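Take a specimen:
=====
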Amino acid sequence: MAARGGKKIVIVKKKVAGGGGHHGGSWKVAYADFVTAMMAFFMVMWILGMDDKTKKAIEGYFSNPVGYKKGFGAGASPLSTGTAPSPIQKTPMRMIVRSTEQRTFEQLRKTILDKLAASDSLKRLNAVVDVQLTREGLRIELVESGRGDVYFPLGSSRMNAATMLTLQLVGTELATIDHPVVLEGHTDGAKFGQDAAYTNWELSADRANAARRVLQATGVAPYRVAEVRGYADTHPRVPGDPMAPANRRISILLPYSETPESAPNAEALAAGKRDSLVNNLSAPLKKAF
């Protein structure tokens, strides 16, 4: 190329090798979207696992966060920051406890029946023992038969051989578990006399108390005896026949447990973790909505 004054102008091109240029912050936006999507997915899965009452509470919060907050200022809202605990459903825990006790009682029932059937002495004494799993719990009854004096002489709380043998056999099995025991005494409708100071009430209570002493001597811890009841003739086994020998009996009851409302359980612990998680998430969610 010619130039002014006869001088040639030389153009030098330099190629500089290097790495790629700055890409900006677009990757940060994509990463933030990914984290937000994962948090939303986690919350959806978490909410799906809740009960219907909690789901409705969360729905109400997002529908009107301000009004819902005012309506649940004490902390009943699942997303509120209050300190009052949300109600905890106890039913599942009670069902677990009941199912466990039913299995224990059924196994104990089978063991007691097997031992009773293997006792030749009780067979010779014609002792009738009824072991049933009822809605109250496991009930073991020493039921009179024949003339009604197999376990106790008529009108007396003195035990016969059949009573001692049966209670010792049952007590040996009851000693293997740690469950409350209730002892009940029942009589028939026969009266001692119109002016008698000793009645069926005293007789039924004395027989139940005599059974308690034998069970404790066999190995049942005293603290396990929750009650000793005397029902006289008010709870007949044969309602249509007040004088039936079967109405005279000793009953040993292992009642089902009632889970206290204040008892700690796995569900309460889970609810505590859930409340903590919700409180941690509530601040960013309020900003987002």
